[in-house]
Fold:
Amino acid sequence: MRLAVEGLTKQYGPQLALKEVTFTLEGPGVYGYLGPNGAGKSTTFKIITGYLRPTRGTVRFNQWSLSTRLRTIQRHIGYLPEHNPLYLDLYVREYLLFRGQLYGLRGRPLRLRIEEVIEQVGLSPEAHKLIGALSRGYRQRVGLASALLHDPPLLILDEPTSGLDPNQVIEIRELIRQLGKTHLVIFSSHILAEVQAIADQVLILHQGQLVLHAPLAEIEKHLGQQEFWVETPPGQTLNWDFLSGQAEVIPEGPTLWRIRTQAPDDLRPLIYQASVTQGVPLLRLEKRRLPLEEVFQRLTHPTPTGA
Structure:
């Protein structure tokens, strides 16, 4: 499974919603697609799914191009839009039956598949009700069930946990994690801790431009900055002369230091060797993993020059 987006640009009159967005996603896996409100996330999803035409740029899924094989690509996509459109006067199973028929499913295989997705998304307790009688969280599950109904290899989920209570969020988060083992899943969320908990890679969009695409474990390298925590026993300190001029040693306590560097290399082996050479035991030596919230803020609210 491979989704390739190249030079994606969308303009509404003078408004530039997307500007030369390029990325490639390989599946299976889970990708978090983030950005402030108005950054262009939903616009990207609408273009990939064929609901909007780009001003410029190309989208390919596997061997197919969106410009020439739109219907083929759409059959391989499960899409949960941000504002989940549902027929409120239909029962849950009735709606899923209708949706399945649109996908070309029929008869007993369709009815069995409906029961599978109802169980999969945790809809069973409410599946006998009219959609209009469901809470917002359960309506969201109906939309997710609809997106899964034809078992598409590519899932695009725009705010999939919107309106869910904390217990439901945990359940859907686990479902997305499991789906990522067999599907290519790209989802947006304003809950950054949620993205950090389940995504393999993260893409951050700002003012219509892609400002980061990296595995979660390597975000610091892509930001060009790494930090390490070092702690020694009371009364014993390291001589930091062994560090290059690129490293900044910041005292955080009598025996605790934060080492900040622009270098891409892992400083932990060097620090450990220095501790052995100097005879200073280490109580703590770890690389600080930046919270996604901090990364997001740095990239979407950059510090003004001279501040």
Observations:
- The chain has a mean pLDDT of 90.
